[in-house]
């Protein structure tokens, strides 16, 4: 994984005589041969990829294609399609269901707050049935276009058995949002998922300075997603693709280091008298969710090293209160049913020294029980 994370999408650079990934910012590509342009437009209209020069920035971009190639390889798929954000990727997958005439989606809670919202509201013309892994097979209908799951899930870190779920799906494609695990810890495609989605904004970028989304899948699904991306315009900026490729190079190292620190913090949190429950995936990883006896808002207000902010997957540790921020948009009852209690805090562990993080957490926890 480490080798391919550094080289995937970049294997041709030495032969090109360049070291850094070429960043192509062109919005349009001049050509004196409009007959050939016509032929290539016809190819692109089907969602296929033409190996020739690009035509227009909303159709394709060479730097973005490098990122897509790299991510597809790391997730073990033939292709990947990159978007302007994780939610642009989610939306394209839902629009693909509608376009296929299969607008029914079965989903397992919890999922990311905005994903929950776009599914619950039916904003894009889909209809959702919320199911448990056990009731999933019974929820499928002839017009079911997709089964949607996150594992480990945002924000409770609840895990599902991807292989068992894929089997229960039968012919219906299973989409796994793999943002939390990253391909370093889990490659859902190897367990039967047909589509693997990332908010690239999180671990793939890894430095809190780039937004993006990506779906790894087979050639047929990729063609449909490219058609939708061309029509709706939710493309990844080439500079974002450049930064995401840079992020991929260190992804395995960042995930390994942050996971080791997270595991140590989990041990200490479990032994803390004011911590009611600690949720940590069997898979490991840099994310920790924990419920405290005291006031969670006081913890957010008192951390001095950890960054009190929504989002995750950055080099610095981020902590947030899901009921107030990431899952605020989900109704209170649905939130509680999904295990997102008001006492729950979600922490994305970064690359700081573990002792510094623990000192910060401990003093913040002290203020939280003084506050109640
Ligand atoms: C953040 C997130 C998203 C949405 O991604 P954006 O890049 O913010 O649009 C989707 N799924 C999960 C699990 C996330 O954490």
What does this 3D model show about the protein?
With 372 residues, the chain is of the alpha/beta class. It has a domain at 251-371: Aspartate Aminotransferase, domain 1. The protein is built from 14 helices and twelve strands. The protein has a seven-stranded mixed beta sheet, with helices on both faces. It has a five-stranded mixed beta sheet with strand order 8-9-12-11-10, with helices on one face. Helix 4 packs parallel to helix 11 and helix 12 crosses helix 14 (354-370). The mean pLDDT is 95. The structure holds pyridoxal-5'-phosphate. The site of pyridoxal-5'-phosphate has 15 residues, from helix 5 and helix 6.
Name the features.
Aspartate Aminotransferase, domain 1, globular, 12 strands
Largest sheet report: 7 strands, mixed
What class, by secondary structure content? alpha/beta
Specify the CATH class of the domain at 251-371: Alpha Beta
Computed Rg = 21 Å
Coarse morphology = globular
CATH superfamily of the domain at 251-371: Aspartate Aminotransferase, domain 1
Number of strands: 12
- Tell me the series of helices and strands, N- to C-terminal: HHHHEHEHEHEHEHEEHHEEHEEHEH
Cofactors, ions, other ligands: pyridoxal-5'-phosphate
């Amino acid at each position: 994984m480490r080798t391919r994370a550094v080289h995937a999408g970049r294997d041709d650079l030495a032969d090109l005589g360049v070291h850094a990934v070429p960043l192509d910012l062109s919005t349009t590509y001049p050509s004196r041969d409009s007959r050939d342009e016509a032929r290539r437009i016809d190819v692109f209209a089907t969602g296929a990829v033409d190996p020739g020069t690009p035509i227009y920035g909303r159709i394709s971009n060479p730097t973005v294609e490098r990122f897509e190639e790299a991510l597809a390889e790391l997730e073990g798929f033939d292709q990947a399609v990159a978007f302007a954000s994780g939610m642009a990727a989610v939306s394209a997958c839902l629009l693909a269901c509608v376009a296929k005439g299969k607008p029914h989606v079965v989903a397992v809670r919890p999922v990311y707050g905005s994903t929950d919202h776009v599914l619950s509201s039916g904003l894009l013309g889909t209809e959702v049935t919320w199911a448990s892994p056990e009731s999933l097979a019974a929820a499928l209908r002839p017009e079911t276009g997709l089964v949607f799951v996150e594992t480990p899930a945002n924000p409770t870190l609840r895990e599902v058995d991807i292989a068992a779920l894929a089997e229960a799906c039968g012919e219906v494609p299973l989409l796994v949002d793999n943002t939390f695990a990253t391909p370093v810890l889990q490659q859902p495609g190897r367990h039967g998922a047909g589509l693997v989605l990332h908010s690239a904004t999180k671990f793939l970028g890894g430095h809190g300075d780039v937004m993006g989304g990506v779906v790894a899948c087979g050639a047929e699904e990729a063609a449909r997603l490219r058609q939708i991306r061309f029509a709706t315009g939710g493309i990844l900026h080439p500079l974002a693709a450049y930064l995401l490729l840079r992020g991929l190079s260190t992804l395995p190292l960042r995930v390994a280091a942050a996971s080791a620190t997270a595991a140590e913090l989990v041990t200490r949190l479990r032994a803390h008298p004011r911590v009611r429950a600690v949720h940590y995936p069997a898979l490991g990883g840099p994310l920790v969710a924990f419920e405290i006896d005291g006031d969670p808002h006081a913890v957010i207000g008192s951390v001095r090293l950890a960054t009190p902010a929504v989002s995750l997957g950055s080099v610095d540790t981020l902590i947030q209160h899901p009921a107030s921020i990431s899952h605020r948009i989900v109704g209170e009852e649905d939130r509680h049913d999904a295990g997102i209690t008001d006492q729950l805090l979600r922490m994305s562990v970064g690359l700081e020294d573990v002792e510094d993080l623990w000192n910060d957490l401990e003093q913040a926890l002290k203020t939280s029980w003084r506050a109640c």
